[in-house]
Write a structure and sequence with these properties.
mainly alpha, Four Helix Bundle (Hemerythrin (Met), subunit A), two-stranded antiparallel ribbon, 66% helix, globular
Amino acid sequence: MTVQTDPSKKAAAALDLTLDDAPELVRPRRKGIYILPNLFTLAGLFGGFYAIVMAMNGHFEQAAIGVFCAMVLDSLDGRVARMTNTQSAFGEQMDSLSDMVSFGAAPALIVYEWALKDMGKLGWIAAFVYCSGAALRLARFNTNIAVVDKRFFQGLPSPAAAALVMGLIWVVTDQGETARSVPGMIFLACGFTLYAGLTMVTNIPFYSFKEVNFKRTVPFIVIVAIALAMAVITIHPPIVLFGVFVLYGLSGYGVYIWRRVKGKPVSVISTSTDEPEESGLHR
């Protein structure tokens, strides 16, 4: 006697067999974000935002301090990431965006509110030159990071440019003065803003201090020198820090002239590129 089998039951049995034999689907693991270096980056971003808010309320000394604090935090996030092996593409992009706010938009807006708005159209043009210079400098840095000599920056780094502009504001406000109360200060502020903005997009080499390795031992005299440097800064932080960054802002041109005189190459590009569309970035 032949037993009739329901076709639907046969199909269901075959489907169950197929599902049992199929390999288990593995869901892709979500990529996380390293907390420690990004905390420093976020703190630096807050420093730039805090500086803008303080300037909007007329507290320019606090605004300058906010930008300088952002500089310290910006110098730490990358080192912390390398020391803890927590580098990531997300962290690199986050750092660039934070730098654009803290060292690009914030100094431009603050110096405009402090002095440049009294110059009319020339004032906001100078502020825009600085802001656009910072954006171009950061974009070029991200593009050339693989080919630039690690010992030097190509152009004035944006934190140092911000220190030139904000340091001037800090020194003047610390003395109880304003841009309008000091003769010629408005034009001096405009000059500093244009100098910082344009120097960021030059090819002048500025020493990067990236050769300093915190994992290596150093002579005892180095620790003594650091202690003395900290003591000198505490004498009068606004003037000392402003003086240091003015010297650094001029040092690149000194290095450029010295290399020219010695007949050494002045370009900081250590590796050439064969791509014609990028050749203009490396000259």
